[in-house]
Structures are given as structure tokens and as C-alpha cells.
Design a protein that fits this description.
- The chain has a single domain, classed as Ribosomal protein L14/L23 (Ribosomal Protein L14), CATH 2.40.150.20.
- The longest helix is centred in the C-terminal third of the chain and has 6 residues, at 129-134.
- The chain is globular, with a radius of gyration of 15 Å.
- It has helices at 129-134, 136-141, and strands spanning 26-27, 31-34, 40-48, 60-61, 66-74, 82-89, 94-95, 101-102, 108-112, 126-127, 144-145.
- It contains two helices and eleven strands; from the N terminus they run E-E-E-E-E-E-E-E-E-E-H-H-E.
């Protein structure tokens, strides 16, 4: 009997495939920079979408994860609203499957819609390769992929 490929129920429309294991460096409550031109500047992580953990363990996100964020600072029409975002950089070092260690100098995210489209049109700074291969819309908008 042939196995049929089914889409994962938590996958967004603009997301591709499974992700590699990356060290989770951003727990719930972390404040990250917004690096697109949507009008937000600082985002607080309030939930990691699709996280399944143990009782009383704080959920944490890694590069390429979709998170629910609230806008802490930015334009008045964006502030105090809840959006979805994708983590594109993290300070905590993580190891790639090739054996290389990667670490960025800040924690950064990009705001997306529920369909997986970017809300802004450009991304400032580098984007991790793990986030770029998982989210093709982010890869096409970024200038530098590390």
C-alpha cells in the first residue's frame, strides 16, 4: 500500500519541509528586533507556534520557528497588537549538519501574515540559512543569507 504524503497541520502556506535541530535560544518573554520595514521595532515573544513540551517548561524558539509576538515599540498603528513572526537570527550558537557553528550578534524576527507572506517588503541584515530554506518568501526578500 503506497504511503501518501500529507501536509503537516501546523505548517503555514509559505513554509517548506521539516527543519533541522537547532539549539533553542529564545524563550517566551524574550524581546527581539524586527528587521523588516513593517513599522515595528521591538517584538516580545508570547508563544511558540507548534511547540509541544513538558509541563511547566518554558517554550523556546530557534531560528526558522514561527512565533506569536506582540509589538513593544514601533509605529502607533502597530503597537500593542499581536502578529505572527519568524525568527531569522539568534545570539545562541547552534551547530549545522555540516559541523559548522553559527552565531549572530542579535536576536531578530520578521513579521508575517497567517498565510506565510511577509508583511514588509525588505529585510535588514543577514538571514540564517535555516530560516531561508524553510521560508522561501523570506529568502527572496533577504539580501544576505548566511
Amino acid at each position: 500500500m503506497a504511503a501518501r504524503a500529507r501536509a503537516h497541520p501546523l505548517m503555514a502556506k509559505g513554509m517548506l519541509g521539516q527543519k533541522h535541530k537547532v539549539s533553542r535560544g529564545l524563550p517566551v518573554g524574550s524581546v527581539v528586533r524586527c528587521v523588516d520595514n513593517s513599522g515595528a521595532r521591538a517584538l516580545r515573544i508570547i508563544q511558540v507556534v507548534g511547540y509541544k513540551g513538558r509541563l511547566r517548561r518554558v517554550p523556546s524558539a530557534a531560528v526558522g520557528d514561527m512565533v506569536a509576538v506582540s509589538v513593544k515599540s514601533g509605529s502607533p498603528d502597530m503597537r500593542r497588537k499581536i502578529f505572527r513572526a519568524v525568527i531569522v537570527r539568534q545570539k545562541k550558537p547552534y551547530q549545522r549538519s555540516s559541523g559548522d557553528w553559527v552565531q549572530f550578534e542579535d536576536n531578530a524576527a520578521v513579521i508575517i501574515t497567517t498565510e506565510g507572506e511577509m508583511q514588509g517588503s525588505e529585510i535588514r541584515g543577514p538571514v540564517a540559512g535555516e530560516a531561508a530554506e524553510r521560508w522561501p518568501r523570506i529568502a527572496s526578500a533577504s539580501r544576505i543569507i548566511v
